[in-house]
């Protein structure tokens, strides 16, 4: 389960190390190298649990759907917001653990 993207729809097999990850941040945390892209990439749909290949050079909008179940996997990511968590802690403990950054709320 990905801790970076809460609504991840597919896993991918990194061409560089042939291991499966839910997102590029997961690859970064679990590997000792940068992700290298190849000509094609294997994906596993989280909805139907089937794998499929995509040719990255020809990737277009139609490629944002699982070819087996038509699950739209290229959707806006829901990410965990650390700031919201810190504000919630302030409400629980009643003191400032969060110092706002100018322009960010």
Describe the structure.
The protein has 2 helices and 4 strands; from the N terminus they run E-E-H-E-E-H. It has 105 residues and is an alpha+beta fold. The protein has a domain at 10-77. A hairpin with a 6-residue loop joins strand 1 and strand 2. It is globular and about 35 Å long. It starts with 9 loop residues before the first strand and ends in a 12-residue tail after the last helix. 7% of the residues are buried. The mean pLDDT is 79. InterPro entries: Mito_Tim_assembly_helper, Znf_CHY, Znf_CHY_sf. Keywords: Metal-binding, Zinc, Zinc-finger.
Q: What's the pLDDT, averaged over the residues?
A: 79
Lateral strand order in the biggest sheet: 2-1-3-4
Low-confidence stretches: none
Rg over CA atoms, rounded to whole Å, is: 18 Å
Please state the overall shape, judged from the principal axes of the Cα atoms.
Answer: globular
Q: Element order, helices and strands? A: EEHEEH
Largest sheet: 4 strands, antiparallel
Strand coverage percent: 15-25%
- Roughly how many Å apart are the termini? 28 Å
Total helices: the number is 2
Number of strands: 4
Secondary-structure-derived class: alpha+beta
Instruction: State the share of residues found in helices, binned by percent.
Output: 10-25%
Domain CHY-type: 1-71
Pfam families: zf-CHY
Keywords: Metal-binding, Zinc, Zinc-finger
Organism: Thraustotheca clavata
């Amino acid at each position: 389960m990905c801790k970076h993207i809460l609504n991840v729809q597919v896993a991918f097999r990194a061409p560089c190390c042939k291991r499966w990850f839910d997102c590029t941040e997961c690859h970064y945390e679990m590997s000792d190298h940068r992700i290298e892209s190849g000509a094609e990439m294997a994906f596993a749909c989280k909805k139907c649990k089937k794998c499929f290949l995509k040719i990255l050079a020809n990737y277009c909008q139609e490629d944002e759907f699982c070819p087996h179940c038509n699950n739209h996997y290229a959707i806006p990511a829901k990410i965990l917001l650390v700031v919201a968590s810190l504000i919630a802690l302030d409400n629980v403990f009643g003191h400032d653990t969060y110092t706002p950054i100018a322009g960010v709320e």
